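BUG: 3D viewer hangs when loading the predicted structure for this chain

Environment: internal workstation, default settings.
Expected: structure renders.
Actual: progress bar stalls at 90%.

Input used:
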Amino acid sequence: MKRLVDTDRDTKRISVRASFGLDSDLEVMAFTEPSDYVPDVDPNYRFDPDTTLAILAGFSCNRRVLIQGMHGTGKSTHIEQVAARLNWPCIRINLDGHISRLDLVGRDAIVLRDGQQITEFREGILPWALQRPMALVLDEYDAGRPEVMFVLQRVLERDGHFTLLDQNRVIAPHSGFRLFATANSVGLGDTSGLYYGVQRLNHAQLDRWNIVAALNYLSPEAEAGIVAAQVPALNHPEGRRLIAAMVEVAALTRAGFQSGDLSTLMSPRTLISWAENVPIFQSTARAFRYAFLNKCDASEQAIVAEYYQRCFDEELAAAPGAPSPHGGA
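Structure tokens produced before the viewer hung:
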């Protein structure tokens, strides 16, 4: 059995200004001891001030918070790292096409009791979390199936009770229950072609989110700092110069995507993967190929190779046995 902390005990109030360095008088409740559901603290994690303040408001004032932004920007991780510093239990559900209404609500199951088979109702993740001091994060919220999304309608209200029809039971939310979600769009569907499976959201439901925060790509300096913190092997003067050039390449792919020259772009997650690959392969070019270039459409690889050449002042050689990204043999 996982160990949970009761919100009636073992809590304290902490200053957002003192603990997170934000210019705010907000105070938020934190648990004095972690439980098994509290995420691990990443000491190198860098918080985006606006997004962090929105998440902290969700924890402090029981607001429903939706974070929207491009892939790889750390939307879910942001929530987890705030929860980690508050010692607040937190679980993530990925609302992919395989998550059904029964997964959320619960279902009857046949169990063996005193040597006899009986039918017993097993709660789904939603009523289970609702009755506990728990931050529930709905990942890929805009990819959820319509019948799943309607289950969440009532719960999205701050004091929203949940009705278990199979049990003729109404569940009141625990005072420590919090609800968050992440999405690549703001309910309008996928207009970029990057996020296959994203749905248009019911606006009556979207309206129930109290706070909607946008988390997009950081400044080049901030992004380089994150990469250096995540990849200590490159966190030295020469390595930081290398990272600065890598960030320039990432920025060019994003600009190319915006202008329609590329159908994909380099996210911060991919950028970190590239940096992590460099010490493994002892080659910036090979690490780049494995982390990003091979994911690109063949017709666009010459453009990506040009970006690399522009930032590193060297040609991106083709992999052995592969056509050159510049079109040569």
